[in-house]
């Protein structure tokens, strides 16, 4: 079966007055149809940039390298026309604040008609409206509300509308970037249930970008932990939450458990300046287990457990042998 998404050696760079900056620096992962991958990490780690790179939605001056294949078709290097076509049809991005993505002067149904007919020009307006009503009711929005304007909806209802817009063309991959951050807890859990339901029923892959590990634990099959532009650990959620390997993952999990906060502040120190990253492990300056070799060369992702990969010299295979006097954290 074709992967919903297959990402290889993805790099996203910006030219700055101080030189090139790699916001995403050599990332690899797959998402199977119907699978959800959570992407976590501190703000600025590159997770939103990665999400946008999957859609080839880059801010001016940004460039992507490597491979992003969605439903078996390469996106990097595709023409602007082809990209427009595939956004919405094969890949949909669901944002944090839906209000900014809806035109306040257009009825909800007209957003659907425009979107559907851009991608499927031969769909009649009548057909498009019927598709809109079906997608809305699938999201728990009464179809009668299709004729309302965006401001007539609550935040939670607007997010449902956005998701309905995102799925109406049955994309292979949904990318949701902090989709519930501005919502209250009850609405949040409803939205998460909807996303969960969707990938089950529609077989869409889901990349869920969030700083909230609780949401990942509830919603995702696998999780990727990002630090300073790189994935430092990736694997099944139950495995990583019960047996995290990377010192950064361990710090993240400890901070969430002890502080019950949505921000990840409790690991002392800061990520490196990406304009001048250190030559070795990017977590070295904050790592309680740092060794000399960590500062010399970068550790690479290596299998630590079935399906669980970690980039850290504490584990055999990450580029060199574990020294005898080091006991990996257990
Ligand atoms: Fe810490 Fe070294 Fe592992 Fe990096 S490679 S996380 S510095 S032990
Ligand atoms: Mg972000």
Automatic annotation (TrEMBL):
Residues of the ABC transporter domain: 7-253
Subcellular location: Cell inner membrane; Cell membrane
Organism of origin: Salinisphaera aquimarina
Membership in a protein family: Belongs to the binding-protein-dependent transport system permease family.
Name under which the protein is recorded: ABC-type dipeptide transporter
């Amino acid at each position: 079966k074709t992967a919903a998404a297959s990402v290889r050696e993805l790099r996203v760079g910006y030219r700055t007055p101080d030189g090139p900056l790699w916001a995403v620096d050599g990332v690899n992962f797959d998402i199977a149809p119907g699978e959800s991958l959570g992407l976590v990490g501190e703000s600025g780690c590159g997770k939103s940039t990665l999400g946008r790179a999957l859609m080839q939605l880059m801010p001016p001056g940004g460039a992507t390298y490597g491979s992003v294949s969605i439903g078996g078709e390469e996106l990097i290097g595709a023409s602007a026309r082809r990209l427009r076509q595939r956004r919405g049809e094969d890949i949909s991005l669901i944002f944090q604040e839906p209000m900014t993505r809806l035109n306040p002067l257009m009825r909800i149904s007209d957003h659907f008609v425009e979107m559907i007919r851009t991608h499927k020009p031969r769909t009649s307006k009548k057909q498009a409206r019927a598709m809109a009503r079906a997608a809305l009711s699938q999201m728990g929005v009464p179809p009668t509300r299709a004729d309302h304007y965006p401001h007539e909806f609550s935040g939670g209802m607007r997010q449902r509308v956005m998701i309905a817009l995102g799925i109406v063309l049955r994309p292979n991959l949904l990318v949701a970037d902090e989709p519930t951050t501005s919502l209250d807890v009850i609405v949040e859990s409803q939205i998460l249930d909807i996303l969960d339901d969707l990938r089950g029923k529609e077989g869409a892959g889901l990349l869920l970008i969030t700083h909230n590990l609780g949401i990942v634990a509830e919603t995702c099959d696998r999780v990727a932990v990002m630090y300073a532009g790189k994935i430092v650990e990736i694997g099944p959620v139950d495995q990583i939450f019960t047996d995290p390997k990377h010192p950064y993952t361990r710090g993240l999990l400890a901070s969430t458990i002890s502080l019950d906060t949505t921000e990840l502040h409790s690991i002392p120190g800061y990520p490196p300046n990406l304009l001048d990253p250190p030559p070795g492990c990017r977590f070295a300056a904050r790592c309680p287990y740092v060794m000399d070799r960590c500062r010399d060369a970068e550790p690479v992702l290596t299998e630590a457990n079935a399906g669980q990969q970690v980039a850290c010299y504490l584990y055999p295979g990450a580029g060199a042998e574990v020294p005898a006097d080091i006991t990996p954290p257990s």
